């Protein structure tokens, strides 16, 4: 099975980097196919913690070819900051390849992101302010800047001037900010051209050739299903396709090349930013989950909202993505709880919903219907076989598996790289 997609099941931060890293030794290629530096992966290797924002986490595995696909929007300053930081720690990043068709985040995208969010006031979406949304908007409006444009100064200048014709009116007349000069943007982008040039190629061709040779290609999604621009809790979503379908459009391979879809889900639920969250906890249990699970954004440092496991969301993600396997992370965080509630359905004004309501208003008003499971007190961070887990922990996992309509193949029991229980191989 050479084509494996990894996607988040909830609202992100589920531990996708850990899953990619788990596959690392048998992986030939890892592709980031959506998003930008608005999402983060934290990977722990040999006691060393690595926080990645733009680079695919597979870049930490020796021998793996890392690719940034056409579906990504790239902040070149962040790209080289990350590469330099990894290089300083002895990580070889020479195999990184970047799609010529990937779009570039500019200074004006970051500026517009921040001022627009402030302008929304109480209607804020909760963006990271890193220019991701405005860059994708330009892509759809066909006024975006692509990586390949950096290699033709004349075309680059034309595109920047065309984009700023409209944006400067917005900045000056609506947001009371200074106009941005085209010279400033062009000079900044050209400063990266020579360094990025050796990395740039037709990554779609590269990946299709690799698949033809039977090599294992892992497509690593940013954000998660409930943040997908089409299938998430719109408008409180990201601006890209974070579901499995985005792996094909964001990398340049056909959907028939995707053999296995792996969904990453926490043993509870978190969310960063605004938007509905039925199982959110506002009491001491929510704060306990946050502190015990260290639920702070890798990219922003913002406190993550915390809540109990939501089975309808997992079923929804399984259906939308065609998930074949689940990787459940952070089961160890629940250690010490006497009881663990699980949302099995919703109550919306007296009506029971077994699935995620299609109507946005209904989902905003959904109240969780819980089933409670007994907890465990034993330390499970050293457990490597499912049958060695406390019986109540086994029962919890098996119950969630049944509710999810797909198998739980891997269970994370700690932050370390090897702190996993493998029930089913993700590659064979």
TrEMBL record:
PROSITE patterns attached here? ADENYLOSUCCIN_SYN_1, ADENYLOSUCCIN_SYN_2
List cofactor names only: Mg(2+)
- Going by the record, the broad EC class of this enzyme is ligase
Q: Which InterPro entries match?
A: Adenylosuccin_syn_GTP-bd, Adenylosuccin_syn_Lys_AS, Adenylosuccinate_synth_dom1, Adenylosuccinate_synth_dom2, Adenylosuccinate_synth_dom3, Adenylosuccinate_synthetase, P-loop_NTPase
Please give the start and end residues of each transmembrane region: none
Q: Which SUPFAM superfamilies match?
A: P-loop containing nucleoside triphosphate hydrolases
Locate the residues binding GTP: 12-18, 40-42, 304, 330-332, 412-414
One matching Pfam family is Adenylsucc_synt
Q: Bound how, and how many: what does the cofactor note say?
A: Binds 1 Mg(2+) ion per subunit.
What this protein is reported to do is described as:
Plays an important role in the de novo pathway of purine nucleotide biosynthesis. Catalyzes the first committed step in the biosynthesis of AMP from IMP.
Assembly information from the UniProt record: Homodimer.
Name listed for the protein in its UniProt record? Adenylosuccinate synthetase
């Amino acid at each position: 099975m050479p084509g494996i997609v990894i996607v988040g099941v909830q609202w992100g931060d589920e531990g996708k980097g850990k899953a990619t890293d788990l596959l690392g030794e048998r992986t030939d290629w890892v592709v980031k196919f959506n998003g930008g530096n608005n999402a983060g992966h934290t990977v722990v290797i040999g006691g060393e913690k690595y926080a990645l924002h733009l680079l695919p986490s597979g870049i930490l595995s020796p021998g793996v070819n890392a690719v940034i696909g056409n579906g990504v929007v790239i902040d070149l300053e962040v790209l080289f900051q990350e590469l330099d930081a990894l290089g300083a720690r002895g990580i070889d990043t020479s195999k990184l390849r970047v799609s010529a068709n990937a779009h570039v985040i500019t200074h004006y995208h970051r500026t517009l992101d921040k001022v627009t969010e402030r302008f929304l006031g109480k209607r804020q979406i909760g963006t990271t302010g890193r220019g991701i949304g405005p860059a994708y908007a330009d892509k759809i409006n066909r006024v975006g800047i692509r990586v390949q444009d950096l290699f033709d100064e004349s075309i680059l200048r034309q595109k920047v001037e065309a984009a700023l014709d409209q944006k400067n009116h917005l900045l000056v007349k609506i947001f009371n900010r200074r106009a941005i000069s085209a010279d400033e943007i062009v000079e900044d982008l050209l400063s990266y051209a020579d360094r990025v040039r050796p990395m740039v190629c037709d990554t779609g061709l590269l990946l299709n050739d690799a698949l033809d040779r039977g090599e294992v290609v892992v497509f690593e999604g940013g954000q998660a299903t409930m943040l997908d621009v089409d299938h998430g809790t719109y408008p409180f979503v990201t601006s890209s396709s974070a579901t499995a379908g985005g792996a094909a459009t964001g990398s340049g391979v056909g959907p028939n090349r995707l053999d296995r879809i792996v969904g990453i889900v926490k043993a509870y639920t978190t969310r960063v930013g605004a938007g509905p969250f039925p199982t959110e906890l506002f009491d001491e249990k929510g704060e306990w989950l946050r502190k015990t699970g260290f639920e702070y954004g890798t990219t922003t440092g913002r406190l993550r909202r915390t809540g109990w496991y939501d089975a309808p969301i997992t079923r929804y993600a399984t259906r939308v993505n065609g998930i074949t396997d689940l990787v459940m992370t952070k089961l160890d965080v629940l250690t010490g709880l006497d009881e663990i509630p699980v949302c099995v359905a919703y109550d919306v004004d007296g009506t029971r919903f077994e699935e995620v309501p299609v109507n946005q208003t209904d989902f905003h008003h959904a109240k969780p219907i819980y089933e409670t499971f007994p907890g465990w007190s034993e330390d499970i961070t050293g457990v490597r076989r499912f049958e060695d887990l406390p019986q109540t922990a086994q029962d919890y996992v098996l119950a969630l598996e049944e509710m999810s309509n797909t198998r739980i193949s891997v269970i994370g029991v700690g932050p370390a790289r090897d702190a996993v229980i493998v029930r089913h191989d993700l590659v064979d």
